[in-house]
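Hey, sorry to bother you again with one of my protein questions. There's a protein on my desk that I can't quite get my head around. No rush at all, and the record is pasted right below.
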Amino acid sequence: MNDDVKVLILRTNRGEGKPTADTDLFGRTLEQWVSCAMRGMETESVPYNEGDELLPVVVTHLDHVRPITVVLYSDTPLITYSAVNEALVKFRHESMNVLRMPRGWIIRTDYARTTDKIYTDRVFTPGDDDFVTVVNYNQLAYAAEILRSRIVYFFMERGVEIVDPNSTFIGANVVVESGAKIHPFCTLKGKTIIRGGATIGEHCVIESSIVESGAVVRSSTLTGALVYKNATVGPYAHLRTGAVIESGARIGDYVEIKNSRIGSGSKVSHLAYVGDAEIGNDCNIGAGVVFANYDGKTKRRTRLGNKVFVGSNSTLVAPLEIGDSAFIAAGSVITSDVPPRALAICRAVQSVKENWSKNTYSGEEKK
């Protein structure tokens, strides 16, 4: 359990233009990767300038209750618990005072209190990339590729189908359940949850969103969205914060949804913007429809009942209430509430001027 161990993580500082302890890597800082790898062992973050003498930095942070002190560095984000634990086993078995790791130390606490300098020729050498040190952005990219591969294969070993591991990026805080399928060129980050049975198609960027079982998302961007079971999204849709897509709903190509709920079985299939809206079940939102939610000062909401039909190229100017089974004619600008089962139409009367092009270019080549 390593209850007798305290871990000091030295926050390395190499100056301007270099990665720092707070540099992000797949949703965690470099230091957080080191801390999380220690699996519950007590850790303490300690400021450290590269080149400082180690003992004066360490000695003021020793814990007399824990007889072993492990010193690690924030610039080794690939470090693993197993590597440190293996070194600890060797340290205890051979009753050492100091054991040096490729980038770190294990020290007997009472020895550190009395010695003048921490030094040893006893060295522990692991067999993989655990102690890769990130001192510049080239090495950050190198570490990122190793870490990306570790994360992807972690999920595949637990039953997630990842079609192309080399083009898939999954963040540290993402949850992907067994039975989910991830297609090539996808990025999952933030606190995203992909449930088993969901399919994430090619070229998706999904951040802090939930995609439920049976849902399909293709070539789309989701940020802070919730996609319920058996809904479909994309291609080329953009679900922004607060977008909720109910079971069986269909969000099509070039549709943007923001802070809106799309009811079960409803369709927003083409080239539409839905902002600050509540759309009931089994509605149809035509191509080019705009929910005009902003009057220049205030965001306002539009509410649609069930089975509402909104014709193509209509604009709904909030605030609005549109009743069940209402029908909005194509090309209308709706500014007043519409009662249930009513037809709303707002467009200019068509005027035809015959022979209007008689004296203008009609497309035929002039003689």
Residues 137-157 form the longest helix (21 residues). The longest strand covers residues 5-13. The CA atoms of residues 323 and 340 lie 4 Å apart.
